[in-house]
Predict the structure.
Amino acid sequence: MGQRIQGTEDLYGGYMRAWQHMQDVARDLFGAYGFDMIETPAIEQVDTFVHGIGESTDVVRKEMFRVFSGALMDRLLESGSESGLKAKQRMAMRPEGTAGVVRAAVEGNFVPQGGAPVKLWYAEPMFRGERPQKGRLRQFHQVGVEWLGAPDPAADAECIIMLMEFYKRLGFDPSKLKLSINSMGDANCRPAYRDKVRQFILDHADEMCEDCIERAEINPLRSFDCKNDHCREVMKAAPLVTDNLCDDCRDHYAKVKQYLDAAGVSYVEDPTLVRGLDYYTRTVFEVEVEGAGVGAIGGGGRYDGLMELEGGKPTPGIGFAVGFERIALALASQGVSLEGAEPSCVYVACTGADERSAAFDATLALRRAGIRTEADYQGRSLKSQFKQADKLHARVCVVLGSDEVAAGVATLRDMSTHEQVQVPIGELVERVQALLA
Ligand code: AMP
């Protein structure tokens, strides 16, 4: 028997309804902010992620699932190296959504020079080869947004405000949410700051883990969120980005905070918040739920250099992504379920084979009117059809016996009160609709 891969989940029943509900809330809310939906392919060229996310990140170095056709795999095994592969043959499952959307925006010229900003949202599975644990999967689902072409700090603030509203609409108690924000500087001020942090790490090399020493050369800022507690402790004395911003970045960050204050959104400033991906510039943010123990339930930031890294013209961008599975876990820890009620239906029961075709017609008529309708397909007794109707949460049962069929009527049984009325078969749909209303 085949087995589900560890760190992946089957989505069905209530869990699937929860994922769909999350998408419905996103569609409504993000729609009001002017976002349209996009879906990019689940596989992209490796280079799309290397350019965007950064060669030095864990996501690209260790966690990306690579994709090879069987024929290509044979060739690779034969040659023992992928150096002969063309860029288009080096493929990976997407580990996050931004790089693919930005690649699509460059390819489709979504934001022509001088054109209006473009706002896109997605709801997609992501794939990362992480060690599976609670709230950490190899295939998980994200809802995310990307807003391309808007340098204004109001865009950063609106993104964050929309994100916090999203959590509220999903059922979170806003007082339990911790929003952390920071500015990571830009191409102007970050290189000098990175050098300072690299020097700090090298000066404290004897106190830091090997990963951090390696990071000092390739991505020193990542040491702020090293998994090793001691490294993080040492990093508390490292130079802070907020003390090293250029005037433009400081001004941008101040305006983002002003807008958040004006909107009454509370936040904490965390000058060590660096986020895992290389592409972020200026504003970054992350949201955690106090006491839920599932890590961040969402985060994002500005990525003004990413369009160029993906081969496009300089175009600012900002976005965020939230993880469905962690949100469901965090909500459950607060006693809130995203699942919603199981859908109810109308059940068409009949007493025997002679009434089956009348039941068939009634079922079709109800479904054509948009009413979720079930019937018996196993030749069960009337009693077990009623039982089945209960199991399916039927609110109304349409009963067709020989007397009813002969008289051209149907009996409607209200499943909660057990009251019954007979209605002409020609009025079936309207009468059922009236009962349901
Ligand atoms: P990131 O792109 O790493 O900032 O992730 C954005 C959000 O996706 C996180 O806040 C989590 O809610 C979720 N997420 C990231 N990685 C995983 C994973 N391996 N399993 C489940 N959810 C994840």
Notes: The chain has 16 helices and 16 strands. Residues 96, 128, 130, 135-137, 140, 142, 276, 296-299, 321-323, 325-326 surround adenosine monophosphate (CB under 6 Å). Residues 13-32 form the longest helix (20 residues). The radius of gyration is 28 Å.
